[in-house]
Specification:
The complex is a heterodimer.
Chain A (H helix, E strand, L loop, with lengths): L3 H20 L11 H10 L1 H35 L1 H16 L2 H12 L4 H24 L3 H9 L4 H38 L5 H10 L3 H29 L1 H8 L1
Helix pairs in contact in A: 2-10, 3-4, 3-6, 3-8, 5-6, 5-8, 6-8, 8-9, 8-10, 9-10
Chain B lengths: L19 E11 L5 E12 L4 E5 L6 H8 L7 E6 L5 H7 E4 L11 H5 L1 H5 L4 H14 L15 H13 L5 E5 L7 H17 L3 E6 L2 H7 L2 E5 L6 E6 L8 H6 L1 H15 L1
Parallel strand pairs in B: 3-7, 3-8, 5-6, 6-7
Antiparallel strand pairs in B: 1-2, 1-4, 8-9
Helix pairs in contact in B: 8-10
Classes of the chains: A mainly alpha, B alpha/beta.
């Protein structure tokens, strides 16, 4: 409980500063809505916000699933084949240099208006931290452990399953934590490029229609989504890698 | 710690001749500046079936390299290594149980799971491997710690789990690399006594590498003294006392004292 205190205090101070700033006469109401107005928007537009949040959440979660499956598969393949690793590593890095904002409209052209382009963009952003972290984790296993497995007569698959994959789990979760936070941004980019629904589209429309409180309400929801995903991944890690925690505290 | 390791859970070592023969073995490496380093310069050793050979030498004399060569984890650059008359690395790996200096327990597996690891590597299903390891845990004084993770075990307990893992596949040749080096002196003494009893109960061919002359003399039938790098056998000492030995008697035994003097003399020369 005490661990939450500093964060809560800081958040409160932040909201306070926000309210004070919004109350200044020189600040335009269209630029900055006050916390009270945003709270009001949550009340007035409750159904609208929740419906669109649901759409975005589905895009984010499905995109994460796609990137986990692709990222883990790719990392394991790169780990097992030196040639594949050497060949694809530069491409992997290059994939992150591509400006997603520019790519998004092309994806919409290619995949049409539905959920496809959003998944593609979320997956493209999240794929990288997952792949790189899992690969690092798989390669972090000590030479002595591999030697020991060899002396036991273990097969390549057995060593992968019993030693390398468990050793890579904490790294996988580190990558997933990063992926979870950026996935929300990916979904927003996807919706901006062309969508009928979703929080990103709602924010964009609200901006055009000068509904500033609604825009801020959407941004707050998107932020909450990212924080919730981050927390969920941290909880999952604690459940699946309890040894990691006990070792650190020991 | 009066422990017997004769257990139905452990496959009995095969009845074939399980001696180890190391003939004129040379092994070199590249050093930090790519310069060639000779770790072993023509080592000759023989360990008879169910004999315990201690190998002592200064740090960096190639003792661990020697063990990995016998274990089939490395190939010699010159000379030959035979275990039970077979010289391929694969055959050596199948006949030898190798216990490295560090316990190398997997932090995500509990004590029982770590002990069962080598069995699982040989294709024994997980649950069966665990149930075969379970009775041994009790014999090793680890009852009640089945579900404990390595981080929750003391150094001596971890070493015993590593030892169980080594013994369970029932391989006839044990290769022990400084098995007690990481332990405090009290734990080390009790683990040595325990190993002596264990080997009396269930004889195996053992190659015990250590830098501790007393440990080698206490546990071995013969002790080979290696030179500093490049390693070479400088002297072999016969220990004429029956095993297992009583520690207090061993400390005061004049014959052992003479051998200890001799070994230290050779090491210091």
């Amino acid at each position: 409980m005490r661990r939450w205190l500093p964060a809560s205090a800081l958040l409160l101070a932040f909201v306070g500063a926000w309210a004070w700033l919004a109350s200044l006469p020189s600040v335009d109401d269209l630029t900055l809505a006050s916390p009270a107005e945003v709270w009001g928007a949550f009340g007035d537009d409750r159904d609208l916000l929740l419906d669109n949040a649901r759409v975005t959440l589905v895009e984010v979660l499905l995109g994460l699933v796609v990137s986990i499956v692709a990222g883990v598969t790719f990392a394991v393949a790169m780990h097992l084949s030196r040639t594949l690793r050497d060949a694809t590593y530069p491409l992997l890095v290059a994939s992150q240099a591509v400006p997603i904002v520019v790519l998004a409209p092309i994806f919409v052209l290619a995949f049409d208006y539905g959920i496809g382009p959003k998944l593609a963009i979320v997956a493209l952003i999240c794929f990288f931290p997952i792949t790189v972290n899992v690969l690092d984790g798989l390669r972090s296993v000590e030479q002595d452990h591999l030697k020991l497995m060899r002396s036991f007569g273990a097969s390549r698959l057995r060593t992968l399953r019993s030693v390398e994959v468990p050793a890579a789990l904490p790294s996988f979760f580190s990558g997933l934590r990063v992926a979870a936070t950026v996935s929300v941004i990916g979904a927003v980019f996807g919706e901006w490029a062309g969508a009928d629904e979703g929080l990103g589209r709602l924010v964009l429309l609200g901006n055009n229609q000068l509904q500033t409180p609604r825009v801020y309400a959407g941004v707050v929801l998107l932020t909450l989504m990212a924080v919730a995903l981050f927390t969920l991944v941290t909880l999952l890690e604690r459940l699946t890698c309890p040894w990691n925690r006990s070792e650190r505290t020991a | 710690m009066q422990t017997k390791v004769v257990a139905a859970a452990v496959e009995p070592p095969s009845e074939t001749e399980t001696s180890v023969a190391v003939r004129g073995v040379k092994r070199g490496f590249r050093g930090a500046r790519r310069e060639p380093l000779l770790a072993l310069a023509g080592v000759d050793l023989h360990v008879g079936a169910n004999e315990v050979l201690g190998v002592v030498g200064p740090s960096g004399c190639g003792k661990s390299t020697l063990l990995e060569l016998v274990a089939g984890l490395q190939e010699p650059d010159g000379g030959s290594v035979e275990v039970a008359g077979r010289s391929t690395a694969k055959a050596r790996r199948e006949l030898c149980a190798f216990m490295p200096q560090r316990d190398l327990l997997l932090p995500w597996r509990d004590a029982l799971g770590n002990a069962a690891l080598a069995l699982e590597c040989q294709g024994v299903p997980r649950e069966e491997a665990r149930s075969r390891a379970a009775p041994l845990l009790e014999r090793f004084g680890l009852r009640g710690f089945e579900g404990a993770r390595p981080a929750q075990l003391s150094g001596g307990m971890r070493q015993r789990v590593a030892f169980m893992r080594t013994l369970l596949p029932g391989r006839p040749v044990l290769l022990l690399d400084e098995p007690f080096a990481s332990l405090d002196s009290i734990t080390r003494a009790s683990m040595q006594a325990w190993l002596a009893d264990a080997l009396a109960g269930e004889p195996r061919t053992v190659l015990l590498v250590t830098h501790d002359v007393e440990e080698a003399l206490f546990l071995s039938d013969r002790v080979a003294v290696l030179s500093a790098r490049p390693g070479r056998v400088m002297q072999e000492l016969e220990v004429p006392l029956p095993r297992p030995r009583d520690r207090r008697a061993a400390v005061t035994d004049p014959e052992l004292a003479r051998l200890r003097e001799r070994a230290l003399e050779v090491l210091g020369s």
